[in-house]
Design brief:
The protein is mostly beta strands. It is 0% helix and 47% strand.
Length: 126
Amino acid sequence: QVQLVESGGGLVLAGGSLRLSCAASGRTFSNYAMGWFRQAPGKEREFVASISWSDITYYADSVKGRFTISRDNAKNTVYLQMYSLKPEDTAVHYCAAAPPGYGSGDLSRRDAYYYWGQGTQVTVSS
């Protein structure tokens, strides 16, 4: 069982930055691929970024060049550093964990992930 707890969300002006953190319980964190998704009001939950157990990263086109995903296995934590934030980045941001061999294996898809956090709100004002 893995529990994920996000933090770091808040209100920021357009052009600003935030760093989200996702703390994971469990002793096998380093074996999991991790992802960030977000959901704006009235919209589907969408992929933001992922990082594999071997630190291969992948980003949605909408955040490429502005966001950076990273992980610290010693701290069981994955981060999402967000720069140049835009009002359209406003959403609840969710952390997710993909066990080895689970689901579709496509880390840009929700069905690749088994564990989800409760989400943290990011609001970008213009």
